[in-house]
Amino acid sequence: MLSRSFIRQSARLYSSAPKTLTIGLIPGDGIGKEVLPAGRQVLDNLSSSHGLKFNYIDLEAGWGTFEKTGKALPDETIDILKAECNGALFGAVQSPTTKVEGYSSPIVALRKKLGLYANVRPIKSVAGTGDRPVDMVIVRENTEDLYIKEERSFVDANGKRVAEAIKRISETATEKIAKIALQIALQRYDVNGKATLTVTHKSNVLSQSDGLFREVCKKIYQSDPALYGKIGYNEQIVDSMVYRMFREPECFDVVVAPNLYGDILSDGAAALVGSLGLVPSANVGDNFVVGEPCHGSAPDIAGKGISNPIATIRSTALMLEFMGHPEAAQQIHKAVDLNAVENQIKTPDLRGKNSTQDVINDILSKM
């Protein structure tokens, strides 16, 4: 969990957290429509216990929106988020695996348009559940790398097709992601009495792009020894990082990575705690935060009412933490932890037989 001290240290979104919050709700596609209501129900439950009031604005984005309107992320959605919302929750997006003219992932575009440069993904096992002890935060740069989507195709001299993609790593974006990763490490040091930052890269092959990422992260770490000196510093080549993460996850604390590696590492790390349906994330910028479960749209189970809402519920808590309401967030996390320890009400991804709403109701009862 990220506590009030993290928000204070890194000058997070609000100097005095407002009690009335307007939240944009973007269900997206597939099971996003089924799990996003969990976030709203949890927020409504908090109103009585923490003096918070929530207003909601339903917004559109996703493949279904593209099929209806020709735009995966309508301008109106961005305009309303900027003008009227304090934060937002995003469900899931279904993207075609082959090129569709005019279509681009709305969540990638949303991150860029709102300046959400960090994707923060805590991966933590729950004490008492029998899972391996895991407690790491993967901090993923959110705006560049291969996700800038600058690609081209051509035919070579032998008449064979070639596709190329640009991988962009900038000093500016890397400085931002290194600083927020170090701030999270400082907060964890305050809680645990120790913290380590692991910089993940592939600079042995990509000496310029990943080499720059590695160099800038180290520069930021060394820029203020009085502040950052108590934090341990490691570097890990991404392929060995994957190996070690599964073999000895207890070795990792805060991991910072370029966009693509961070995406792969955080999805893979979800297996350490049981399911993608459990892992939350927050897309964080200087002025806005969007909570987003790490799972996809899961078209194979969409409409069956059995998707796991816990990633959305924890993402809602994470959103609240970055908005300056850590006590409310902690209430959510405690209720989810109790559901996990009891291990009675759970969806099929966790070998249970309960519905999405069954799990939501159980967590609400524990709040």
UniProtKB/TrEMBL annotation:
Keyword NAD tagged = yes
Listed A to Z, the keywords are: Amino-acid biosynthesis, Lysine biosynthesis, Magnesium, Metal-binding, NAD, Oxidoreductase, Phosphoprotein
**What Gene Ontology terms describe where this protein resides (cellular component)?**
mitochondrion
Give a single Pfam family match.
Iso_dh
Domain Isopropylmalate dehydrogenase-like residues, every copy: 22-363
User: What cofactors are annotated for this protein?
Assistant: Mg(2+)
**UniProt pathway:** Amino-acid biosynthesis; L-lysine biosynthesis via AAA pathway; L-alpha-aminoadipate from 2-oxoglutarate: step 4/5
Reactions this protein catalyses: (2R,3S)-homoisocitrate + NAD(+) = 2-oxoadipate + CO2 + NADH
Please list the GO biological process terms of this entry: isocitrate metabolic process; lysine biosynthetic process; tricarboxylic acid cycle
Name one molecular function that GO assigns to this entry.
NAD binding
Top-level taxon in the UniProt lineage: Eukaryota
Q: What is its EC number?
A: 1.1.1.87
Q: Which InterPro entries match?
A: IsoCit/isopropylmalate_DH_CS, IsoPropMal-DH-like_dom
What's the family?
Answer: Belongs to the isocitrate and isopropylmalate dehydrogenases family.
**What is this protein identified as?**
homoisocitrate dehydrogenase
What is the native source organism of this protein?
Hanseniaspora osmophila
